[in-house]
């Protein structure tokens, strides 16, 4: 594992100096519109630590702190998780339908992470992995957002706009010196240790950086 992160770190140093295309709009899927505190999360949907952090921030949002910060999710699929890259492509596709659709998809994949884990898919073909991603989206996301299923299936393939977007996302992460997941950036600066934060620590950080305005 340490060797993998060392290699990712080297890749980050190399790729961070390479050209990152300027997107037509800011990358990521966002909740909230605070201009004072922006927290960016780089997640791999097959990473258990990303899942834990995602769920903890869900608790923070559920407690009403979402008005105090802008929460932006980026995909950073790690190379040793086979399903992570097509999941990032699906996330990119659904983000064009609705930000909440992409957020729901991330939640569903995290909730079903074990079904697409390396140990579970060791004997699967690539197409079986893509089919499972599509099935989970159809069961849990499609009923609410009614996307084009054929187009969604195509979005998981190589050589598509969404494959390119997922590549740009990863490259953007390396440009920001991200070399693993989860990584959090607060107002442009990496928040060291945030991957281990519990809800109380996030709430304390948010309140210190952007206290809630007291109602008169």
Q: What is the class in the CATH system?
A: Alpha Beta
Low-confidence regions: 1-16
Strand content: 5-15%
- The order of strands across the largest sheet is 1-3-2-4-5
How many DSSP E strands?
A: 5
* Classification by helices and strands: alpha+beta
Total domains, how many?
1
Distance between the termini: 53 Å
- Report the helical percentage: 40-55%
Organism: Paramecium tetraurelia
Keywords: Signal
InterPro entries: Thioredoxin-like_fold (IPR012336), Thioredoxin-like_sf (IPR036249)
Protein name: Chromosome undetermined scaffold_1, whole genome shotgun sequence
Secondary structure: elements and pairs:
Elements: H1 2-15, E1 29-31, E2 38-43, H2 48-62, E3 70-75, H3 84-97, H4 99-111, H5 126-140, H6 142-145, H7 149-155, H8 161-175, E4 183-186, E5 189-190, H9 199-209
Parallel strand pairs: 2-3
Antiparallel strand pairs: 1-3, 2-4, 4-5
Helix pairs in contact: 1-8, 2-9, 3-4, 3-8, 4-5
Tell me what the structure shows.
With 216 residues, this protein is α+β, with helices and mostly antiparallel strands. It is 50% helix and 10% strand. The protein contains 9 helices and 5 strands, in the order H-E-E-H-E-H-H-H-H-H-H-E-E-H. Strands 1-3-2-4-5 form a 5-stranded mixed β-sheet, with helices on both faces. The radius of gyration is 17 Å and the shape is globular. 34% of the residues are buried. Keywords: Signal. It holds the Pfam family Thioredoxin_4. InterPro entries: Thioredoxin-like_fold, Thioredoxin-like_sf.
Features:
5 strands, Glutaredoxin, about 220 residues, about 10% strand, alpha+beta, five-stranded mixed sheet
